Amino acid sequence: MAEALHWDDLQYFLAICRKGTIGAAARWLSVNHSTVLRRISSLEAALDLRLFDRLPSGYALTAHGHELANGLAGITEQIEATQRRLTGGDLAIQGVIRLTSTDTLLQAFLMTYVAEFHARHPQVQIQIVVNNSFLNLTQREADIAVRGSNRPPENLIGRRTGVIETAVYASRKYLRALGRDRDVEKFHWVAPDESLAHLESAKWMRQNVPAERIAMRVDNLVGMVDAVAAGVGVGMLLCPLADRRRELVRVHEPMRQMDTAIWVLTHPDLKHVARIRALTDFLYEKLRDEPRLRHEEAMARSPR
User: Fold this and answer.
1) Res 2: pLDDT
2) For residue 132, what pLDDT is reported?
3) Please, are residues 157 and 265 in contact by the beta-carbon 8 Å criterion?
4) The domain containing residue 29 runs over which residues?
5) Are strands 166-171 and 248-252 parallel, antiparallel or unpaired?
6) What are the tens digits of pLDDT across the range 123-167?
7) pLDDT at 190
8) Residue 79: how many CB atoms within 10 A of its CB?
9) Residues 113, 248 within the same domain
10) pTM passes above 0.70
11) For a Cys-Cys bond, which of 41, 231, 247, 263 suits 174, CB 3.0-4.6 Å?
């Protein structure tokens, strides 16, 4: 059995355990569906055990499958941690960096900064992953995260660069249509949809804006700016995005309860990799001096 067992097959088994489905495992490993099935069949044949029950709803671990998964628990993380420690000796500013951030921060600041960094370090290839939730930096889904969060993950290290503000905006076109009758009770609103319900601005709207006054809901903050600019209604928008649109004006000053800290974060095992350190330091310096963020001494925290 030991001679027949291909250790590479175990990564396919672990991928299904981690991702939950054959399709998700195939996408994560960058292979096709049939390759995953073939590798699992090979592993089951080598062990002479059935590891998955084939159900109409998908694949489910058998008792033997659970036993194998428990026995392998932590192995992937150990291999990845070893890889990070080994690559930590990389002293050259070259290679690939996976940077993850939100569409809002990329559009407001980061794309310009990344272009400038690449001009300084042309041997670095930057892969940008646009994602509005924290990717798993422990599993190297990304190397650096630039995120708006007042509660960043404890397993990451980094620095807080400033605060992004939120205020109520309207288009000049919308305000002209209202004329002198600018009673806030008569405003129509552009609101975030349910996928953004966790935002402080969404919580404020639920408490202060009647449902019948909401003209449109949008599932991303960039789209909300476009909707308000088109004259749909007023909206609670991120100031760095809205202030650069000449057709928009502030209806109300920023509300402090909606302030969100901006962080530059990475995994502790990567802090000594030259290219990672170079980009995190560069982004921190740029964001710390960014005039469209609010800065206070309390924001410039030492590394976590």
Assistant:
1) 46
2) 66
3) yes
4) 8-73
5) antiparallel
6) 999 999 887 665 556 556 789 999 998 888 888 899 999 999 999
7) 97
8) 11
9) no
10) no
11) 231
Q: How many separate domains does the chain show?
A: 3
SS (H, E, C) 143-168: CEEEEECCCCCCCCEEEEEEEECEEE
Is residue 276 domain-shared with residue 130, that is, in the same domain? yes
So what's the pLDDT on residue 127? 93
Query: What pLDDT was estimated at residue 301?
Result: 47
1 located within any domain? no
Residue 294 structure tokens = 């609010």
Q: What is the per-residue pLDDT for 138?
A: 54
DSSP string for residues in the chain: -TTT--THHHHHHHHHHHHSSHHHHHHHHT--HHHHHHHHHHHHHHHTS--EEEETTEEEE-HHHHHHHHHHTTHHHHHHHHHHHHHTT--SS-EEEEEEE-HHHIIIIIHHHHHHHHHH-TTEEEEEEE-SS---TTTTS-SEEEEE-SS--TT-EEEEEEEE-EEEEEEHHHHHHHTT---GGG--EEEE-GGGTTSHHHHHHHHHS-GGGEEEEESSHHHHHHHHHTTS-EEEEEHHHHTT-TTEEEEEPPPGGG-EEEEEEE-GGGTT-HHHHHHHHHHHHHHHT-TTSB--GGGSPPP-
The stretches in the chain having pLDDT less than 70 are 1-4, 76-77, 79-92, 132-140, 181-182, 297-304
Domain boundary among 19, 43, 73: 73
| 112, 192, 237, 265 from 250: Cα distances, Å | 25, 18, 10, 31
Closest CA to 121 of 95, 89, 84: 95
**Tokens standing for residue 173:** 């076109």
